[in-house]
Amino acid sequence: MNAPLLYCARKRGYLYEKEYVLPSFFLSESEKETVRLLAKQSKELSSFGYGKYEGQAVILSKISAGAGTGEDERGMTREPYFAEIEMLGGRASVAPLEYFLCGKVEGRTYTYAFFDPDVFISVLIAGGLDFRIIKPNWLREYMKEKLSGILKLL
To answer: Domain locations in the chain?
Structure first.
């Protein structure tokens, strides 16, 4: 996640070199517009005496503007990557990948959407699934490079 970490021997742990917040989500343009509209409605409700909506309006405004998440506006609205993955072997459950699932192409081939290739690859490997990356080619090559680097360290 490219966090600016430093090891502190005195405290025997890690700390952030500069202020950093882990990104918790990403919004498409249409989702961002929906959050903007919800913020506007909450603000209007709070102006009519429904004070409980005031805090909600502030939070939704920050989310729609990309504030408070450690991401700039461009990072919050970037488009996802898509991958076609074929499940191999006897295990057909794709439960570890449910969060990324877009749809089934045919047979045991699925399409997944993701924003961070490292996170997606980690879930693929940690899920204990036998799989083959059909496309995109860059993801297959990226995964080979990552795994080669890990193997060299062993």
So the answer is: 25-76, 81-153
Query: What does the alpha-carbon distance between residue 27 and residue 71 come to, in Å, rounded to a whole number?
Result: 11
Amino acid at site 12? R
Which segments of 1-154 are extended strands (E)?
Answer: 5-8, 13-16, 81-87, 101-106, 109-114, 131-135
pLDDT 10s digits, 105-116: 788 888 888 878
Query: Which position has the token pair 């080619």?
Result: 137
* CA pseudo-torsion sign 104, 136, 118, 76: negative
> What span, in angstroms and rounded, lies between the C-alpha atoms of 97 and 94?
6
Chain position carrying tokens 């991401």? 71
How do residues 65-86 score in pLDDT, each as one tens digit?
Answer: 764 344 444 444 457 788 999 8
CATH of range 81-153; options 3.30.70, 2.60.220, 2.40.128, 3.30.230: 3.30.70
Amino acid at 79: E
Helix, strand, coil share (%) of the chain residues, nearest 5:
45, 20, 35
61 and 39 Cβ atoms separated by less than 8 Å? yes
Of 1-15, 42-56, 58-72, the one with minimum mean pLDDT is 58-72
